[in-house]
UniProtKB/TrEMBL annotation:
It comes from the Eukaryota. One of its GO terms (molecular function) is urea transmembrane transporter activity. The lineage of its organism: Eukaryota, Metazoa, Chordata, Craniata, Vertebrata. It is a multi-pass membrane protein. The keyword Isomerase does not apply. This is Urea transporter. InterPro entries: Ammonium/urea_transptr (IPR029020), Urea_transporter (IPR004937). Residues 363-383 are annotated as: Disordered. It catalyses: urea(in) = urea(out). The chain crosses the membrane at residues 45-63, 83-102, 109-128, 134-153, 165-186, 217-240, 247-267, 273-294, 301-324, 330-350. It comes from Gymnodraco acuticeps. The gene is si:dkey-183c6.7. Belongs to the urea transporter family. The keyword Transferase does not apply. Pfam families: UT.
Amino acid sequence: MWMDTKAEEKEASRSRASLGQRVLNGLLFFTGDMEHLNKYMQDKVFGLLLAVWGLRGVSRVILANNPLSGALILAALCWASPWQALLGTLGVLTSTLAAVIMGQDGAEVSGGLHGFNGMLVSMLMGVFSSAGDWYWWLLLPACLGSATCVFLFSGLAPLLDRWDLPVAVFPFNIVIVLYLLCTGPYNPYFPHHPATHAGPMEINATELMAVEVLRGIPLGVGQIFACGALGPSLLILGAVLLYSPLLAAHALLGSAVGTLAGLSMAVRHESLYSGLSGFNGALGCMAVGGLFFTFNWRTHLYAIASAFLSAYADIALSNLLGTVGLPACSWAATMIATLMLLLTGSLSTYRIPMGQVMSPEHNLRSRKQWKAGKTAEGESTNV
């Protein structure tokens, strides 16, 4: 009887372990780049394909490539502002459709590479518009600006491919600045708020509130989507976590570094509290900390350095462009990440070719397998 009970307990323990393993495998099925979804979607109707491509484009804004992450981000944007969510959805679909019509590379289109710039352009048009929410005329420049991003992407790609560099958000930064220069704050059809510089703080500014500064760190992740609410920002961070825990950790770290850089330069309190001081640091840290480089302690230190440089460059550009009422957008993180990719020396040995960039965890596993294969090959050669 005692032996039967013992055997039943072992069987129940194995059953629980197998159930836990199945649950874990099921969760892992939805993480990373979800390559298996591409095979499943091959023979589906175009509307469903467009939806998946669009969701990948949404997640590409924050350097991920996961349609479920994109769905969570859209939910966060709807929570924060339905109007901004509508503009973002319109932008990503318009630019993706424009890429299909222009006959762009199928892998790039299905991977969302032609969607994220269009989404950012349309959303930022809404953010800077002084006409208020649900100003339907804004849909016209949003569509045109999103489609223009595809032209710039296809034009810049051959130039940057020579150095194996990503086009990144150069099209977005170019188009939004041109749009704001064309319209101006007092345009009768598309007026916008002039941007303000990052610092210095006001002479009669009140004391800095530590709780608000700490709150600004997760808000720095949300500000990548121009989202300044805490709940939606945490949901966006959760979407990054679903794609890659390493990337999510570097997003928070980079935002904290950007906030620290803002404190060191005594920028306006509002920039610290709203997360605007942190989002360029978050992007710079994410780009180097496992996405375009294999993660290790060296690239981790480079990621922190990239976050500091991105944050300081953003402060400088904000002060410069703010004098003419223009925002610095994500010029700082884009330029610093590009320079990091051009570096030679020890860092370049950990760089991942653009065509092989996937989630940081996948990149890390691939490098370990490659090094193990090289070691085995060397041992067999010696024998």
